[in-house]
Write a structure and sequence with these properties.
Elements (H helix, E strand, L loop, with lengths): L14 E8 L5 E8 L19 E3 L3 E2 L5 E4 L6 E4 L7 E4 L3 E3 L1 E4 L5 E3 L3 E5 L7 E2 L5 E3 L4 E5 L6 E2 L8 E4 L3 E3 L1 E4 L6 E3 L3 E6 L9 E4 L5 E3 L6 E3 L7 E4 L2 E3 L7 E6 L1 E4 L3 E4 L8 E2 L6 E6 L3 E10 L8 E6 L4 E7 L4 E11 L2 E6 L7 E3 L6 E3 L3 E6 L5 E3 L2 E6 L3 E4 L3 E8 L9 E5 L6 E7 L6 E7 L4 E7 L4 E5 L6 E9 L3 E8 L1
Parallel strand pairs: 4-11, 13-20, 21-42
Antiparallel strand pairs: 1-2, 3-5, 5-7, 6-9, 8-11, 9-10, 12-14, 14-16, 15-18, 17-20, 18-19, 22-25, 23-24, 23-26, 26-42, 27-41, 28-40, 29-36, 30-35, 30-38, 31-34, 31-40, 32-33, 32-35, 36-39, 37-38, 43-44, 44-47, 45-46, 45-48, 48-49
């Protein structure tokens, strides 16, 4: 096909002083002082008038079935539009670029500017969360909708482009339709809140100067001396307090570890029409949760070159990652280990020469529950190269709120059975006298722990109400004496000088 566009090279010149066109009809058109690097539409006329301006009555973005009026200036004897219509006004109901050629009574011609008319893009609303779709219990996830009018969220919120959610569930947003009545509802956005309940503990009462082994029910517990921040005192379900002389509060939190899932995505295989294309293409995809792209599978048809292939991750014009692979005829699993954040991306192989599908396809292709492949660089009738995506969702560590563990200290603490443990003198150089007042209800034991919680001595106490504790062979320092039986547990802090 011959083009009606003629190209001229001007070298270093920046303008054309004079351009003369001789038409087959004998008409001659002359233009003067034309800047370089420009395209001109030249009508067949012996004289040219200055450009004329079209007036648009309404918006150049119209809904299907609506029209917009383009009006040329008055005073011309003939109006010829680019779509072969005539008249001063043009009613436009379809997409395209429109201009008019205006001729006066002397045969001189003026051109108008080109006006582009487009149909309104009635997009379905979308929901985006920069932090992904998974949070820990106690945290907040902010969901933001695409632009529009009259936001209506599934949780009942109205008028706001964003909402903060703290519960698992499916969330949608509806926006006013631009070309019809009512609202258009988004696809559901799935939010997962990982549970992280706080440990449970009871209030404890001890006597002044006693130490006690605190125990809670929780997961990977960490003990602190403050409600936020503070010093880490111990880890695990139990914590041995130092001797306490007054009421004291400790704090404990649980740590929950949620390993990330391995998920699949993309077109699973090459089923359908396809082959090697003459042009290289790539895939567009978007994510709403970060993940690691572990691997993809590509196929090299028989006879295709076996040189190395480079797989590239772009976002959108920035190269984020690249990896080189040797390939062989048939199926090739490529281990990528690309870290993919939240956003919009493309996955490419510039060398091509890999199998790609053509014909009817089923876009979008989910990428686990973290994103989707939306289209290819040549549209939705092509799927380029990368099949059977394997992704790893990130691991999560969730911290619970800190539970309060309060220890009440009294001067004359007694167990329900009237048991009282007395140690004197304390501190002492080596010999301590231990007295148990009250009924032990049977066999009991004593255990001596050093400052690090290690057991250094243990002994049975058969109906013994008092005994001597000789620490002559132990180094000076802090010790915990524990006396316990089937129905009681008593501790006392000892200091050896």
């Amino acid at each position: 096909m011959n083009s009606l566009t003629v190209h001229f090279g001007l070298g270093q010149n920046e303008q054309v002083d004079s351009l003369k066109i001789r038409w087959p009809s004998g008409t001659v058109t002359v233009l003067h002082d034309l800047p370089a690097d420009s395209t001109y539409v030249v009508p067949e006329a012996s004289c040219l008038l200055p450009p004329a301006a079209l007036t648009v009555s309404g918006s150049t973005d119209i809904c299907p079935g609506d029209t917009v009026e383009l009006l040329a200036p008055a005073g011309f004897s003939n109006y010829a539009w680019s779509n072969n219509q005539t008249g001063q006004a043009l009613q436009v109901g379809n997409e395209g670029r429109f201009f008019a050629i205006l001729t006066d009574s002397l045969g001189c011609v003026a051109l108008t500017q080109s006006i582009e008319i487009q149909f309104v893009d009635e997009n379905v609303p979308t929901i985006f969360a920069p932090a992904g779709n998974t949070v820990c219990q106690g945290d907040t996830l902010v969901l933001t909708a695409s632009s529009g009018e009259n936001y209506t969220w599934s949780d009942g919120t109205t008028g706001a482009p964003s909402i903060a959610v703290t519960e698992s569930g499916s969330y949608t947003v509806a926006l006013d339709a631009l070309c019809s009545q009512g609202q258009i509802v988004s696809a559901p956005f799935e939010v997962t809140v990982l549970q992280a309940p706080a440990p449970t503990a009871d209030v404890v009462t001890i006597g002044a100067g006693d130490s006690i082994l605190l125990t809670v029910s929780g997961e990977n517990c960490h003990w602190y001396d403050q409600s936020t921040g503070g010093n880490l005192l111990a880890t695990g379900p139990s914590f041995q307090t130092p001797p306490l002389e007054s009421d004291t509060t400790f704090y404990v939190e649980s740590h929950f570890f949620y390993p990330g899932e391995i998920q699949q995505g993309g077109k699973p295989d090459t089923t359908g029409l396809g082959g090697i294309s003459t042009q290289t293409g790539f895939l567009y995809f978007k994510t709403w949760s970060p993940f690691t792209l572990l691997s993809v599978t590509v196929y090299v048809p028989p006879g295709a070159p076996l040189n190395n292939r480079f797989v590239q991750l772009w976002s959108p014009d920035t190269l984020l990652a690249v990896k080189q692979f040797p390939v062989q005829t048939g199926q090739n699993v490529l281990d990528l280990d690309f870290e993919v954040p939240v956003g919009a991306f493309t996955l490419r192989c510039q060398q091509g020469n890999l199998f790609r599908n053509s014909g009817p396809l089923d876009y979008p292709y989910p990428i686990g529950d973290a994103g989707e492949i939306t289209t290819s660089s040549f549209g939705e009738n092509y799927y380029y190269y990368f099949y059977d995506w394997q992704i790893h969702r990130p691991d999560f560590e969730c911290l619970s709120e800190r539970a309060v563990v309060h220890v009440s200290v009294t001067d004359t603490y007694e167990e329900a059975n009237g048991l009282v443990l007395t140690v004197f003198p304390n501190p002492s150089g080596e010999l301590f006298f231990v007295e148990i007042k009250g009924s032990t209800g049977g066999t009991s034991l004593f255990r001596l722990l050093d400052a690090g919680g290690r057991e250094v001595r243990t002994q049975a106490l058969d109906h013994v109400s008092s005994f001597q504790l000789d620490l002559d062979r132990l180094p000076a320092g802090f010790y915990i004496l524990q006396v316990f039986g089937d129905h009681f547990f008593k501790t006392k802090a000892l200091v050896k000088r």
